[in-house]
Amino acid sequence: MSSSSSIGISTVKPCCRILIGYRGSSIFGSHARSLDNPNSSKSHSKSIHNRGSYCSSSRNSGRSSHCIVQRCIAHQPSSVVHGGRAFISSASASSNSIIRSRISAAGFYADSGILRRRGVLLVPKVASDYRNQSTSVDNNHVNEKGFEQIYIQGGFNNVKPLVIEEIEKSGNSVVLNGSAVDLDYFKELNEKTTPQEKDERVASEIEKEAWKLLRAATVTYCGSPVGTVAANDPGDKQPLNYDQVFIRDFVPSALAFLLNGDAEIVKNFLLHTLQLQSWEKTVDCYSPGQGLMPASFKVRSVPLEGTEGEFEEVLDPDFGESAIGRVAPVDSGLWWIIMLRAYGKITGDYTLQERVDVQTGIRLILNLCLSDGFDMFPTLLVTDGSCMIDRRMGIHGHPLEIQALFYSALRCGREMLTVHDGTKNLVAAINKRLSALSFHMREYYWVDMKKINEIYRYKTEEYSTDAVNKFNIYPEQIPSWLVDWIPEEGGYFMGNLQPAHMDFRFFTLGNLWSIISSLGTREQNEGILDLIDTKWDDLVAHMPLKISYPAMEGEEWRIITGSDPKNTPWSYHNGGSWPTLLWQFTLACIKMGRPELAQKAVSLAEQRLAADGWPEYYDTRGGRFIGKQSRNYQTWTIAGFLTSKMLLENPEKASLLFWDEDYELLETCVCALGGKASRKKCSRFAARSQDGA
Ligand code: GLC
């Protein structure tokens, strides 16, 4: 697996020996990545690409229900090991210098010396091809009770142009639809022509190295950049799946590229992963829900059937069926939506999110999240290890990280969904959930001195709708470390809440996204940063930032992790320090007007990351040692550092990536239903008197 051919950007150089699949930009517009020929079909063999056949962009045009597989074909491949990974090369391809094209039953075929293009049409094989139906989409798999019957009005023509509702100019910046855009910054970017030149802003040597490494981590598919590998560690003898493109890991890469003016890779990533969403996926004969996004994918090169010496590239996703522990990638779809919004906000290109296929992708993800289950709470119920912490760590149930990303994705979804008869019920469901979710989190997940004191005096076994101790928490559950640790000022959202169970551990990512998305009230958001500041030595120390605090030790570690040797106390997910959390911390600090706090953390990281080889994580209480099993040249460490730097330099760009309090939601607060008593208790009412959070 490790030596198979994920294609780095450097492979494009051995002169496009990878032959490229047909991209129908000239026929169906620049987004179309397929042929649309209903008369052409070819059955798929039982191979990776059989399973991998995907229904792609015919849904863009809303024209046909045919699935397309793009194949990138190479002759007589030989592996070239480059930077620890194997690439494909071809001797014969480069000798052909004639450009020719032909249309055959198998599709369009073009040779151009170093590039050959070929598209193959397939009879749809995947179960979930309703994205490809012309205009109507039957949503009978999710939410039978149904808040939605998806109907794409007007198909492809229903693409809204970017509407500039409001534009104000002052000095060298404009405010566009409420977001500040720095014209000088864009001018500077535009004056420069190549991406490399763009990098040469005022980049320090370390930043320059980081850019070089980030670019070297780029993966191409059919000649186009589509993502970055998780780690590019030449010394790694067992890369497992670190040579894949992880959805969550790509987020900081995407932001670094976007902030640097390189939007293409992000757009490609979004569109290719969207195609993977409809992949036929099975884990031991069971098919997980439609709309699921993979945890990761890999570009593989496989022999092309019926040919001699020809190879094709295929995208091979992992929905958890190969992942260690078979964990479900619940966060992937949420990150995808967040990234899609960021793409629009930073580039100003809203046509991507308005595409019919992209709109359908958003709806599928949100439908999956909003579908009815046995749950009693508005929080998302998930299994252990379904997010960044993708191993058993006692975070099953309603972990904070998933809730904060869910809230953010719902806010993104509501912003991006085109409202029409077919989506208005979904939008209403999103609004309802946003309201209920933020109420639930603000009320029940918040921990501070006052709240602990309340829990300490809880009565238990209360049976009634107006119980004070709703979750029947036994005060004995308050851990001894917390009693001494909780500061007088500030607080945080606890890690998890379930019947008779509160996980009081501090999880950084969830708390940061509560700030970024305004899941918390302004007071709570400030409280989280206060706590990080006060507890700097515990949460940052030598390397920002602890993934969770404190570590589980002894019996607790044995029972909760199942004696996981990778998650020993103060290592990896169990209290390890992860530099990739830096960009999210930076974003949260900028939002709350405390960039100096972020700057302090960035400086700490800058002193060590490059010298240490850009590790994935650090170990020990203070984050002094490079992680026991940490990869080096971990891409999201590199990209997170670059993104943090750029956000600090361009706070107006950062402002495109976070949200203020949603006052409309406050108006329809669910707790208002509970009558006067509950109104009083509701933090939302307090928030109304505050100035945006
Ligand atoms: C580890 C991390 C996970 C990350 C992956 C690839 O499994 O826990 O969050 O996505 O590595 O870097």
UniProtKB/TrEMBL annotation:
EC identifiers of the protein: 3.2.1.26
A GO term for molecular function: sucrose alpha-glucosidase activity
Keyword terms of this UniProt record: Carbohydrate metabolism, Glycosidase, Hydrolase
Keyword Glycoprotein (UniProt): no
Residue segments, region Disordered: 35-61
Gene3D superfamilies found in the cross-reference section: 1.50.10.10
InterPro entries: 6-hairpin_glycosidase_sf, 6hp_glycosidase-like_sf, Glyco_hydro_100
Low complexity compositional bias, start-end: 50-61
Pfam hit, one: Glyco_hydro_100
GO cellular component assignments: mitochondrion
Record-level GO BP terms: sucrose catabolic process
Catalytic activities: Hydrolysis of terminal non-reducing beta-D-fructofuranoside residues in beta-D-fructofuranosides
Similarity section: Belongs to the glycosyl hydrolase 100 family.
Function per UniProt: Invertase that cleaves sucrose into glucose and fructose.
Name the UniProt record assigns to this protein: Alkaline/neutral invertase
Source organism: Linum tenue
Organism classification: Eukaryota, Viridiplantae, Streptophyta, Embryophyta, Tracheophyta
